[in-house]
Write a structure and sequence with these properties.
The chain has four helices and eleven strands. The chain is an alpha+beta fold and about 190 residues long. Strand 7 and strand 8 form a beta hairpin. It has two domains: about 90 residues, Outer membrane lipoprotein wza fold like (Roll); about 70 residues, wza like domain (wza like fold), CATH 3.30.1950.10. GO terms for molecular function: polysaccharide transmembrane transporter activity. Keywords: Signal. Pfam families: Poly_export (PF02563), SLBB (PF10531). InterPro entries: Poly_export (IPR049712), Poly_export_N (IPR003715), Soluble_ligand-bd (IPR019554).
Length: about 190
């Protein structure tokens, strides 16, 4: 009986340790991760935009990008805007207003009012969802989540970015890691 208990405990320990082994995510550098967002902000589902159509107060307002990445406004069809920067979105809206004959020479501006949140999970004091602010760095995101726990791995991070098909492991360096709206930051446990 005792041998069975010891054997069972060893099997459970081995199973538990196998779950703690390092992940099999592809590795990326901080510089590579930062280049994916250096081309400017691309809007996506969940962003809240302020669209201003000059001299047309009935077309001006705040609009939420739906889960399919579309922007719905009065008078025009849904505009597919996901992956475009605010200037490109303004151009699409302008061309649709002009093509529909609603506004002869539309002047449109678009600004992001509320960005998608950032998720900080794992070995932090308060894992959860946090509001994004422009130029957010990795350490600022960790500070929002109350800092590292004593068990946190402070040299590597798992980052899931909407532009990536799979999460990536990033080895932290002196170069600041820039966090994008919608990113999920996962701090794993250190086993040193």
């Amino acid at each position: 009986m005792r041998a069975a208990l010891v054997s069972g405990a060893m099997a459970m320990t081995a199973l538990g340790l196998s779950g703690c082994a390092s992940n099999d995510y592809p590795t990326s550098s901080v510089a590579n991760a930062n280049t994916t967002i250096s081309s400017g902000y691309a809007v996506a589902a969940g962003d809240n935009l302020k669209v201003t159509v000059f001299d047309e107060p009935s077309l001006t307002g705040e609009f939420l990008i739906d889960s399919a990445g579309n922007l719905a406004m009065p008078l025009i069809e849904k505009v597919p805007v996901a992956g475009r920067n605010p200037n490109e979105v303004a151009g699409l809206i302008s061309s649709q207003l002009k093509a529909g004959g609603y506004v002869l020479d539309p002047k449109v501006s678009v600004e992001v009012l509320a960005y998608r949140p950032v998720y900080v999970l794992g070995e932090v004091a308060q894992p959860g969802e946090y509001p994004y602010s422009p130029d957010l760095t990795f350490f600022q995101a960790i500070a929002k989540a109350g800092g590292f726990t004593p068990r946190a791995n402070k040299t590597m991070v798992v980052l899931q970015r909407s532009a990536w098909s799979t999460p990536r492991t990033i080895k932290l360096t002196d170069e600041p890691l820039i966090i994008a709206p919608g990113d999920t930051v996962i701090i794993e446990e250190s086993f040193l």
